[in-house]
Amino acid sequence: MPASAAERPQGFWQSRPFRYIVNGLVATAVHFAVLTFNLKVLGFASAGFANLIAAVFGIATSFIGSRVYVFHGSAETLLHQIARFILLYVSIALLHGALLYAWTDVMALNYIAGFAVATVMQVIFSYWGNKILVFKV
């Protein structure tokens, strides 16, 4: 008798961490595409403002992909997921900024290395925060 999908062992390509990486790449591509569209097609004068608008699209893509593709099967309601997702991402953004501030402005270290360290922290916290707090799977 064949095992159910839940009982079958998953390979790396079907694993949640791999799906998380794919979702992040897609969300990043959407963010960059909207940023480019805002600058090149719509002619936004401010790259910062164009990026702010683009970030909303990237974050929305990340949420939808996380809900449908990465962390599917959650029993949490959509509104609870959205509220927790926003709280998680605001918290991570503040932590990212604080870490980069301490790294670069206080300790006078290279901002690129600090950004890389903060981004690794962001990816780890985002994965576990989504898994445990937002989608609870």
Provide an overview of this structure:
- With 137 residues, the protein is mainly alpha-helical.
- The protein is 75% helix and 0% strand.
- α1 runs antiparallel to α2 and α3 runs antiparallel to α4.
- The model has no long low-confidence stretch (mean pLDDT 90).
Distance between the termini: 27 Å
> What is the general shape?
globular
Taken in chain order, the helices and strands follow as: HHHH
Number of H- or I-type helical stretches: 4
Q: Structural class, please?
A: mainly alpha
Biggest sheet details = none
Nearest-angstrom radius of gyration? 18 Å
How much helical structure, as a percent, in the residues?
A: over 70%
The total of beta strands comes to 0
Strand content: under 5%
Mean pLDDT: 90
Low-confidence stretches: none
